[in-house]
Write a structure and sequence with these properties.
- The protein is an alpha/beta fold.
- The protein has a single domain, classed as Thiamin diphosphate (ThDP)-binding fold, Pyr/PP domains (Rossmann fold, 3-Layer(aba) Sandwich), CATH 3.40.50.970.
- It contains 9 helices and 9 strands.
- A 7-stranded mixed beta sheet has the order 2-1-3-4-8-7-9, sandwiched between helices.
- Helix 7 links the parallel strand 7 and strand 8.
- It is globular, with a radius of gyration of 17 Å.
- The protein starts with 23 loop residues before the first helix and ends in a 5-residue tail after the last strand.
């Protein structure tokens, strides 16, 4: 029987450590496919921070570097400036990028650093047992908001794409999800555009991916996908928020 599909060479064949229903594995595969298809495996450097994404280097057969919590954009900036011929990306969660790393992501975008940021948003702190994150929805229950997030006590979910899209230095900003085959295909297209933005030396790009966390959402895998489609997208609408090509 002729094979119609095979695993990307960049994706390491190893057992997953992610929880059942987690979206990180899907995103890893998409990144690996793009790296193979663009033939940039030997020149790509990834940054993994603290959080569920910290072990990304276990799955991607490329050069990887760890960074302190929230600091991948700063470390990626240094690596890219020293090695401008490399393709440099950070792989970050919402607790990492949108909380302790808020200053780093905003100023990296403001400087127009020529890197690609992959932002996996599951609206909760996954590694540390499910506390409220900057992107937790209003009324969403977490370990630290057992009665639901309150605007009065906790503020509002942080709209990262909307914030970064108005910064002059950003070039490509988009939000997508991985809740269906159609959305996964779209996510791959947007990730590829992020890498191309860097390779063509256009500047800073960020792709936000709405991803399920069934364990700490206290839902089944199917329910978690419905939660994204029915709840999360109302707070975090999908789409392209800034595109350097449309501005030319």
């Amino acid at each position: 029987m002729e094979a119609t599909y095979k695993a990307p060479k960049t994706l390491i064949d190893t057992p997953t450590h992610y929880c059942p229903g987690c979206g990180h594995g899907i995103v890893h595969r998409l990144i690996a496919e793009i790296i193979d298809e663009m033939d940039i495996r030997g020149k790509t450097i990834g940054l993994a921070p603290v959080g569920c994404s910290v072990l990304a280097y276990n799955y991607l057969d490329i050069d990887m570097c760890e960074a302190a919590h929230g600091r991948p954009p700063s470390v990626a900036t240094g690596i890219k400036r020293v090695h401008p011929d490399k393709v440099v990306f950070s792989y970050q969660g919402d607790g990492d990028l949108a909380a302790i790393g808020t200053a780093e992501i905003i100023h990296t975008a403001n400087r127009g650093e020529n890197i690609t940021v992959i932002f996996v948003n599951n609206a909760v702190y996954g590694m540390t047992n499910g506390q409220m994150a900057p992107t937790t929805l209003i009324n969403q229950k977490t370990l630290t908001t057992p009665h639901g997030r309150s605007e009065k006590n906790d503020g509002y979910p942080l709209p990262v794409c909307e914030l970064l899209s108005v910064i002059e230095g950003s070039r490509f900003i988009a939000r997508t999800s991985i809740t269906s085959p159609k959305n996964i295909i779209k996510t791959k297209q947007l990730l590829e555009k992020g890498f191309k933005t860097q390779i063509q030396e256009k500047g800073f790009s960020l792709i936000e991916i709405l991803s399920p966390c069934p364990v700490y959402w206290r839902m089944s895998s199917v329910e978690s996908l419905k939660f994204i489609d029915e709840k999360m997208v109302k707070t975090f609408p999908l789409g392209i928020f800034k595109d350097w090509e449309s501005q030319n």
